[in-house]
Amino acid sequence: MEKRPLILLTNDDGITAPGLRTLIKVMNRVGEVVVVAPDSPQSGMGHAITVNDTLYCKKEYIDDGPQTEYSTSGTPADCVKLAVNEILKRKPDLCVSGINHGSNASINVIYSGTMSAAVEAGIEGIPSIGFSIVDYNWNANFEKCEKYVEIIAKNVLEKSKGKNTILNVNFPKIDKADYKGIKICRQASSYWKETFDKRKNPNGRNYYWLTGKFINLDKGKDTDQWALSNGYISIVPVKYDMTSYDKIDEISKWNLK
Amino acid sequence: MEKRPLILLTNDDGITAPGLRTLIKVMNRVGEVVVVAPDSPQSGMGHAITVNDTLYCKKEYIDDGPQTEYSTSGTPADCVKLAVNEILKRKPDLCVSGINHGSNASINVIYSGTMSAAVEAGIEGIPSIGFSIVDYNWNANFEKCEKYVEIIAKNVLEKSKGKNTILNVNFPKIDKADYKGIKICRQASSYWKETFDKRKNPNGRNYYWLTGKFINLDKGKDTDQWALSNGYISIVPVKYDMTSYDKIDEISKWNLK
């Protein structure tokens, strides 16, 4: 590449999260990095955008790296919109989101702020990657991810110019020396079985905490859940056309008059 | 049906919104209605869920209809989770969300709180419908929708038992006597071209309002945008598997080592 690629970074854990700081370190080796990330954690925000409130944006100086950084009061999807339309001088060559502290595999893609930023970039015609690690620990070991983040980002930059590639990449939690490899997968069919933890506040009013148990219904060996359970990094190519094409014929036969 | 079906209603404009009140009126004719809806507007919330905050839930008495109603401090997706796991005695036969004040056709499905509630129900194995009207007016005329809401809901109840049918139904804005009919469609390929309205607050600090222009790139006559532009009600069957299957082969050939 003649010119250094322009790379937009964001996340949903907030601008100071270790996962994002790892991403910045790696992506500084790949191109010119601009960070536009939430000023506070935005986990579970899905593809939320701020339509009924104002957005703030502030330049940040967090470490002495070569990247430029901004924090915003918005969601991950807001960050991408603000970056592309207000902050960046030109359309970025790549958008990278993460590294998320926690899995965004299978059904989690729907609830994920990290992935919503990647999808938003894809909608705007920017190749994008969301990275996540299956480890909810704030001090998770991101070191082993670094090599693969760089390889995957370079591949997308090289092979997805002008294509709307969106990748959902998850790293398994491993104890061993290295990952077993990379699997290109489909999203496993799964869901969260919720339990609400019901409590009383000091004024005697009931409130709830949402908790849940992850249920994987999918025994397929071509899924992201299988790859992660077996020590592989999973990559699911993602699209934002949510049409269930196989149902169009069936519903066309209904008596809708 | 021997027993009256149990129908869960929700929305993203809040429990007092005229669109939801219309839905309640119609669905009271179809089954036993329980409303669990946000206590304030949640537009643009996408598939957000409340993971870092508490949830409140309160019984409401808004009109003298036969339905049971609860408001919550959560998002539309939270409402469905709370209803299914805490409030309802059994799994509902149908979940209906809306009628949203504003279009959820094409790319709007991604940002839509209304549709996230329907998708959440689908994930939990409950047939569901999100209804929206292409009219942002709080006092939009919902009367013409009523007949079709009933027809579509009855069809889903009858034909989708045990299937994870999720429908995204949009009503066009019409001046004439009635809609031209119903089209079963795919989601049009489109996006929002944002502009940020930059202002200064009384303390001199910059802030932004997100505004945008809708761009439809898709000339297909099989899309929801085409149907709506031509006076038809659009129905898009929706799924939550976001895998881009046609890209799996291509990416498998990349050099990811």
- Fourth-tier CATH superfamily name of chain A: Survival protein SurE-like phosphatase/nucleotidase
Spans of chain A with pLDDT under 50 lasting ≥5 residues?
none
Order of helices and strands of chain A: EHEEEHEHHEHEEEEHEH
| Architecture (CATH level 2) name of chain A | 3-Layer(aba) Sandwich
CATH fold topology of chain A: Stationary-phase Survival Protein Sure Homolog, Chain: A
Describe the global form of chain A.
Answer: globular
Major pleated sheet of chain A: 9 strands, mixed
Rg result of chain A: 19 Å
**What is the number of helices of chain A?**
7
Strands of chain A, total number: 11
**Average pLDDT rating of chain A:** 93
Distance between the termini of chain A: 58 Å
Which CATH C-level class of chain A is it?
Alpha Beta
Strand content of chain A: 25-35%
Helix/strand structural class of chain A = alpha/beta
Q: What order do the strands of the largest sheet of chain A run in, or round the barrel if closed?
A: 3-4-2-1-5-6-7-11-8
